[in-house]
Amino acid sequence: MKIDKQTVLELYRTMTRLREFEMKIQELYRSGVLPGFVHLYVGEEAVAAGVCANLSKTDMVWSTHRGHGHALAKGVPGRQVMAELWGKATGCSAGRGGSMHMYAPGCGFMGTNGIVGSGITMSAGGALSAQLRKSGQVTVCFFGDGASNSGSFYEGLNLASVWNLPVVYVCENNLYATEMSLERATKSLDIAARAAIFKMPGVTVDGSDARRVYEAAGEAISRARKDGGPTLIECKTYRFHGHHEGDPGTHYRSKEEIESWKKRDPIKALRESSMAEKVAGADEFDAIDRETQAWLEDAVEFGRVSPEPDPETALDFVW
Amino acid sequence: MVTNGKREITYGDAGVEALGEEMRRDPSIVYIGQGIGPRGGNFRQTKGLWAEFGDHRLRDTAITELGETGMAIGAAMAGNRAIVDNVFLDFSLEAMTQIVQQAANAHFLSNGELKVPLMVRGSMGSVRNAGVQHSHTFYAWFAHIPGLKVVVPATPYDVKGLMKTALRDDCPVIFIEHKALYNIKGNVPAEEYLIPFGKANICRAGTTATLVAVGRMVHVALDAARILDQEGISLEVLDPRTIAPLDREGIAASIRKTTRVAVVEEAHASCGFSGEVFSVACEDCFDSLDAPPKRICARPAPNAFSPKLENRILPDVERVVTEIRDWMNS
Amino acid sequence: MTHDVVMPQLGLTMTEGSVSVWFKQPGDKIEKGEVLFSVETDKVEMEVEATVSGYVAAETVAPKQMVATGTVIAAIVDREDEIAAAAAVLAGTLRAAVIEPTEPQAYPATGGEEAKETQGAPQFSATPLAKRMARELDVDLHGLKPAKGSRIQAEDVRRVHAAQAEAAAPAVPAAAVAPLDVQLSPRRAALAERLTASFNQAPHFYLGVEVDATQLVELRASCVAAVQGEEARITFTDFFLKAMARSLSEMPSVNTFWQNGKILARQSIDIGFAAQTDQMLFVPVIRNVDQLTMLGVARERIRLAGKARAGKLTLAEMEGGSATLSNLGAFAVDWFQAILNPPQSIIVATGRIAKRAVVCGDALAARETVTISASIDHRVLDGVAGARFLSRIKELLEQPALLIL
After folding, report:
1. Distance, CA of A11 to CA of B302 (rounded, Å)
2. Which residues of B are known to be catalytic?
3. Cα–Cα distance between A101 and A115 in angstroms, integer?
4. Do A158 and B105 touch (CB under 8 A)?
5. What interface predicted TM-score (ipTM) does this complex get?
6. Fold observed for domain B201-328
7. Which of B34, B77, B170 is the best mutation test for A, with the most CBs of A within 10 A?
8. Which chains are within 8 Å of A by 3+ CB pairs?
9. Are A318 and B108 within 8 A, CB to CB?
10. Is B136's pLDDT higher than 90?
11. Residue C100 and residue C93: Cα distance in Å, rounded?
């Protein structure tokens, strides 16, 4: 499948934003201005960018603890994500959620989530709702290799399959659940193959290749939208950083392994392959880089100057 | 059945009526659970609904409490009104993470943008010596969590009125019936009515002491009150009906009147609802107390199977009468 | 050698008492058996004799000062030269023993300044409601004993408050003169407390009958004439007591009373009668009234009334029975209702016997009549039982010959 130039540039723009955003978050976090703790998406950008490029605003995404990239790729404004990480009143959850609990239903973003695997069943429920309402919406659930070993994975995929629900399960297999390597966690290393248990299509793609992810997701989302039922896509990917900011990520991973994945940096790969194929020129990518910096500076400034929430509102929206 | 001009139906049928009326009124309602379709529910709690609403809206599931509850939450977040029936409240523990971590929080975490119109249904308590894993009385666990509403009806009238309210609430509601009550009959008017949450029911007015109870224990408390009445002990039996929100003012008003409060619970005492009632007594009407509050709860052991053992653990009328009598003389 | 003299325990329920009079002063010589002091308790006044001979070394409580039973209140020494040393020792030990508890008990003060103002600490903790009521009604919980259980409750505060209110309700308007602080004797306080408790706790109901006393008046006159040599004079009270005794003996279920949530039955027919003295109302109890002759009843009544006037009634002479008679027939009282004498379940109240207009057949006639009421504890007896009891009394008094058979 030939991917047009505009899509390539869009994928590049999204990935660059996700990368630069996370690097800025790392810097801000290390300087002590951001509360809480963060899990950075650096290295996995091709997955969120490739999947979400196929979604419309009303489609729904359930995300993970490593979800800043999912939020941005689904269209939640950078300003709101930044302000949320800052705990500001202008954040997408008005400072109630933070990194792992940011919601923007208006953008079809149904939340990052601190509970591994929890989105797998809820996204099936979202898909059930779409099916009942005949809305044509598709739901996407991101989760990691860690969640693939949880009970939610089996219960959620089973229900999605038996009711033929319009949900696409995207497993971001970055090989480590926190510090636990997949090889030590299970003998069933082929996660996509598990789809067969539930009689749904299972696909494995190179999660460092945005175009391949885009294609695979496009096919699954299109099928789901046509009442063709769910799909499991396993994206082989890697996080360049530790599990969370502060974890060097080197106690359980070798330097060689990390370096080998960094050589397959999805952003560099897309830029270089596209230039080699003459889909787009260096000046076009450079323009996007500059634009990304401006976008990022605006988001950071917005987060910095935004007001803190009013303590009087702490009990709002409980019931 | 109509007697004395009053329509009498069972506790279970009252729920079925509420469901039918609300599912007709609100086409977004989807009911997910085990055996709730053609079978009509393990406790006949969805009797006849499948014939009317079909597979589309009554979704029989596998034994998958985590999955079915997570799905119901997702469906509620995405725009439907969802009911998930875990049948036995005991089984809701499989889904506790979804109820506590997701359903209860989503409205708050989305700064009010997301609604979670969800009713989690499960039956609690002991009936016919079902053994510990099918007899738990967990309502206080849920009531501990901000963002969950917890309903524990004692009568057919309350089942219907409270369930209709639950099915119009935009928050997750844990609707906990008592399985020993499904066949009791009571007056349920034919006309539509709703019972607001957080409004206690004075089941019996009295002057000597306030007895707070929910679920099946309301009936135990009433029986004990009738016996003690002949000894000059006039008990006011108060059923909060909803544990969360709790009618603290209603409870406090009763205590101010009677100057004493006791709680009769099928649940255990430790860190439970009885302590919450005591907090009302101590925080809201301390100066009205003329005796230390008293609790008559399940003794601290798992529900044993043998009737002899289980009866020793759970409060019954005799124990309530004896303990209240002693308490009144202390 | 020094011999301690303590506040004696004069009955099961006595916990404290006061010396009303010291008959000897420090330094006086005293013989064994000589009266040293008199004690006033909530029930009785009693003289206490020295148990050794010697010299009174010291007396450490002033008259009317309450001390717990067992408290050393005086010392007697063998030799005159021991007086000073013993007095010095006693002065030290006694200070510690006197009335106010010196160890503050656990008494969570919620009343701030008010709580601090109360002297010492009560021996019993109070419920929050009792404390609030005590603040509002200005009742001192200090030393108050709960009617039941281990906590002062609202009903205890109400009881004390009622007694205070009664004591503080002088006929003289407060504004006119400075209020007179009438010393409340322990017995008066105890009576007030007992009657308040009775009235608050025992659900009274009242029955009344009019009795044709024509035959009674005639028979009593004959009896008085028949025993003219005797010192004892038979009164209508004796007839009433006998009628009550007969009725009680015929209905054992009525000869019962309420105690600690239980109904207890008396084994004998003992009946109290209200005996007013100059200072106090006493209710001595005549034993086995059913077995006494009319004259026997009269003698016993006169003996006990005499002891009451002299303040010499023992506790045993005032305990027991399930019923009491209160006869105000000597006054211009036609009828009244009385308050139960706890723990008894019945009190019969009789007014004066006088000629009144009575319908006989279809005509009015002047007949001697008396109205008798019974106040009954509804916890023990119901209306029908009470009615049977009272009807039988009426029957017996209208044919009083039955009483001397």
Report:
1. 58
2. 65, 134
3. 10
4. no
5. 0.93
6. Rossmann fold (3.40.50)
7. B77
8. B
9. yes
10. yes
11. 14
**How far apart, in whole angstroms, are the C-alpha atoms of residue B136 and residue B143?**
15
What are the tens digits of pLDDT across the range A17-35?
Answer: 999 999 999 999 988 889 9
Q: Which amino acid is at C174?
A: A
C384 has pLDDT over 90:
yes
Q: Do residues A82 and A302 touch, judged by C-beta distance below 8 A? A: yes
Class of the domain covering A5-301: alpha beta
Is residue C107 a part of any domain in this protein? no
Do B2-187 and B201-328 come out as alike in CATH topology? Answer: yes
Q: How long is chain C? A: 405
A–C touching, 3+ CB–CB pairs within 8 Å: no
CA–CA gap between residue C381 and residue C398 (Å, rounded): 25
Is the full-model pTM beyond 0.80?
A: no
CB-CB under 8 Å, A62 with B78 = no
- Separation CA B295–CA B327 (nearest Å): 10
Give A155's contacts in chain B (Cβ within 8 Å).
64, 66-68, 70
Is residue A12 a contact partner of residue A275, using CB atoms and an 8 Å limit? no
Question: What residues pair up with B213 in beta bridges, in sequence order?
Answer: B264
Does the pLDDT value for residue C110 go beyond 50?
no
Among B94, B111, B113, the residue to mutate for chain A (most A Cβ within 10 A): B111
Is B97 touching A (CB cutoff 8 A)?
A: yes
Spatial CA neighbour of C354 closest among C239, C156, C213, C182: C213
The alpha carbon of C372 is separated from its chain's Cα centroid by a whole number of angstroms, namely 22
Sorted by where each begins, the domain ranges of chain B are 2-187, 201-328
| Cα–Cα distance, A138 to C269 (Å, whole number) | 95
CB contact under 8 A, C129 and B325: no
Judge: B70–A125 Cβ closer than 8 Å, yes or no. yes
Which chain A positions have a beta carbon within 8 Å of B80's beta carbon? 128-129, 132-133
Chain B residues touching residue A128 (CB < 8 angstroms)? 30, 59, 71, 74-75, 80
Tokens of C70: 């067992």
Contact A171, A123 (CB under 8 A): no
Report the residue of chain B nearest C111, measured CA to CA.
B287
Length of chain B equals 330
Query: Which pair of structure tokens corresponds to residue C156?
Result: 């205890």
**CA–CA separation, C250 vs C248, rounded Å?**
5
Q: Do A129 and B105 touch (CB under 8 A)?
A: no
Chain B meets chain C (3+ C-beta pairs below 8 A): yes
Measured CA to CA, the distance from residue A95 to residue A79 in angstroms comes to: 13
Which chains have 3 or more CB–CB distances shorter than 8 Å to chain C?
B
Q: Which two three-digit tokens encode residue B249?
A: 């003012």
Q: What are the φ and ψ backbone dihedral angles of C325, each rounded to 5 degrees?
A: -110, 130
Do residues C292 and C363 share a domain? Answer: yes
Q: Which two tokens stand for residue B73?
A: 């939450």
Whether A249 contacts chain B with CB within 8 A: no
What is the Cα–Cα distance from B129 to B309, expressed in whole angstroms?
10
Measure Cα distances from C323 to C244, C257, C364, C389 in Å.
8, 9, 35, 11
Which residue among C194, C217, C251 closes a domain?
C194
**Which residues share a beta bridge with B29?**
B81
pLDDT tens track for B23-79: 999 999 999 999 999 999 999 999 999 999 999 999 999 999 999 999 999 999 999
CATH topology for the B2-187 domain: Rossmann fold (3.40.50)
Q: Give the closest of C110, C129, C149 to B259, CB-based.
A: C129
Place of tokens 């001192």: C140
Asked whether residue C208 falls in the same domain as residue C189, the answer is no
Residue-number span of the structural domain to which C254 is assigned? 204-404
- Using the structure block, give the residue that is written with the tokens 């539509």: B192
The percentage of residues in chain C with a pLDDT greater than 90, rounded to a whole number, is: 34
Q: Which residue of B has its CA nearest to A120?
A: B70
Contact A289, A15 (CB under 8 A): no
